[in-house]
Amino acid sequence: MDVHHENEVTVKLLLTSGGITNPTIHEALVDLLGKPVEQASALCIPTAQWGHPVCGPASARAFVAGQPPSGSMTGLGWASLGLLELTALPTVDRDRWVGWVREADALLVDGGDATYLHHWLRASGLADLLPELTDTVWVGVSAGSMVLTPRIGDLFVEWSGAPDDRTLGLVDFSLFPHLDAFPTNTVAAAEEWAADIGGPAYAIDEQTALRVVDGRVDVVSEGRWRRFPSGQDAGDVRS
Length: 239
Prior knowledge:
Number of domains: 1
Low-confidence stretches: 1-7
Oligomer: single chain
Protein name: Dipeptidase E
Number of strands: 10
Helix content: 25-40%
Distance between the termini: 17 Å
Organism: Klenkia brasiliensis
Shape: globular
Largest sheet: 7 strands, mixed
Radius of gyration: 16 Å
Strand order of the largest sheet: 3-2-4-5-1-8-9
Keywords: Hydrolase, Protease, Serine protease
């Protein structure tokens, strides 16, 4: 299925709810990289965690160190893995960090609060660089995926400094993650959220990802997901 949006997306996207959780999603990652993970370099970005009240030093360390449950992103056996903390970039010479980003095959963007991540993507300058990263794969988990959408809905705004629920809008659909993973993330909750989001949307579980290349969206799944064409009910959950 094709999507159309004002902002041209050149970076290749793998938008997940829970990371690289099954062989099908892993195969999609390898396909986007164009080589095995073991031959690829990555930078992990934990920034979204600082904006969410249930995250903190321990969970950020788990992501960076590839510990459960974050091992499904950073614990895949990358040839090299580095840390890119967006809150630090405004104090670092731009030529230095731009070089780090350009040399990476993948950006592993963790969850937390998408509005906080959005703020620092803008403030750091990384958002402006994304259109130039034609050979880079953005691998998002939860908020790390949601930040590329136009809106996340008030349901998912946890950062007290967020002016609203708007995010980057590099794709033209919104994303409801963790379907069935938490008591509050039910199909009924996704339907209510989608009715207010004002555009096409997906609800995906931990075994599902969305692959976006050249404006084309493909669902990659061994689990359950649902598409809402325009914020309205779209029928049964698919699996």
